[in-house]
Structure of Peptide deformylase:
Amino acid sequence: MTTDQALRDAIEQHLDKHARGVLPIVAVGHPVLRLAAARYDGQLGDLLPVLLESMRLTMLEAPGVGLAAPQIGISLALAVMQDPGVGDAEQADPRERTPLDYRVLVNPDYAPVGPDRRSFYEGCLSVPGYQAVVPRHRSVRLTATDDTGATVDEVLTGWPARIVQHETDHLRGELYIDHAHTRSLATNENLARYWSDTPDPSMAAQVMGFPLS
């Protein structure tokens, strides 16, 4: 696809309005979060790296471990991810939250690898103030291209796989709350107060009455 000049101009104006830095994140209820994002086929031309850098800065400032373009009001199939990981490498983390280097995903898709699923609390920058337990595939095969056009085809496991699923779902017009056990929904404050001793949600499931399957 050739450059879409009208779209490019609109996004450039939006970026310039925010000094090509941190952008506002749209919240649940905004229609763009419920649209299937358009496939990226070069519509932005040389503006793409500028947009991706603003997405990276926005993700880090939030802070978050991933950000999809619809979350900044742009319905294109673009996402960025980065996670330093958590905890001591010698301490068991049931989430398998290992470090994930910064990467760009263009037109990503995923498919489950194996039958294993895991359930953990998950939040979203576009659903501020809340978290809920979401069952996800433990391992997925990610296919996409990166910002240079190179093919991405890899298997991720644990928390990196969860990030891939979360961000790719955004590009399908889906939010994590669509897949969550709604009885697990908690404010960030109550999650910290009652369920922060361990990332394992088993006690929360027992007390609040939701399954972990």
Q: What stands out?
A: The mean pLDDT is 96. The longest strand covers residues 100-112. The chain has one domain: 5-208. Residues 5-208 form a domain with the Peptide Deformylase fold (CATH 3.90.45.10).
